[in-house]
Amino acid sequence: MCPIPISDDIDQVLAPHYYGFTNEELDFIIFCDTRYCTGMDTGEGKATNKVMTTSDQADMMPTTLREIHDGLSTEFNWICAKFKVYKQLFEPDTDTTKLLNAKVRDLSVIIENSLADDILVSVCRITDGLKSVGHECLVLEQLAENIDGCSPDETILKEHVRKESIDIRDYCEDFRQWRNNRIAHANLAISLNRPVAPLPTVHIKKIEEALRRISHLMNSVEGHFNSMEIRYEDIILRGDGRDLVFFLRKADEYEERERKELYELYSKKE
Hints:
Elements: H1 4-19, H2 23-35, H3 63-90, H4 95-103, H5 105-127, E1 131-132, E2 135-136, H6 141-145, H7 152-171, H8 173-183, H9 188-191, H10 204-226, H11 241-269
Antiparallel strand pairs: 1-2
Helix pairs in contact: 1-2, 3-5, 3-10, 4-11, 5-8, 7-10
């Protein structure tokens, strides 16, 4: 991804003339570039409480809530980024899977397992309860805790966010079983394949649904205060799984071409 000032210049040139975007749509694109696609880096390495748009729109979210929301957004962005790469590389029965198995089989297994574990642990981390070993945690339920509820609308929002946070936590219980028994800890019976109830199967679709619910919850808060929706699933990466596969294919083509050239060379000598 381009540095933000250059990216903004490109957006402002292309948006009206090539894509027909309105000023509001352009504001939204630049807002996403600044706050979310780069992990909310404002140039000083920390989040800002100001919505970064060309119209300098004021951020209506209270400061403490904004701090919590931005912290969760950063965590959630990384989860979406890792899941995006995971799907690009490891969705079953694809040419990509065959290429990885043929060229870097053991490395592929290490990356697949590491990404899968990291995604499950990261989802558990933001959907856990409010406290762990006596310390407050940066979790979804903190959003409800930091909504004032001083107006009827905010009271409704507060209760909605609290309920949805708990529902998401319950939905991710299968992830927590993996974290507690295989990733963060090694359950003895499971690790030694002793007779014991197996861990629940976690499919890609279940992870997708968990991320969809988290995204909806985050946007219900952002949308309430700023009438804005962030498409977390469309995070832009400076190099992703497709880029890795592209270069692996190029290497494969080069290797095949070199093999043919050597064969032709030795054939002529004979």
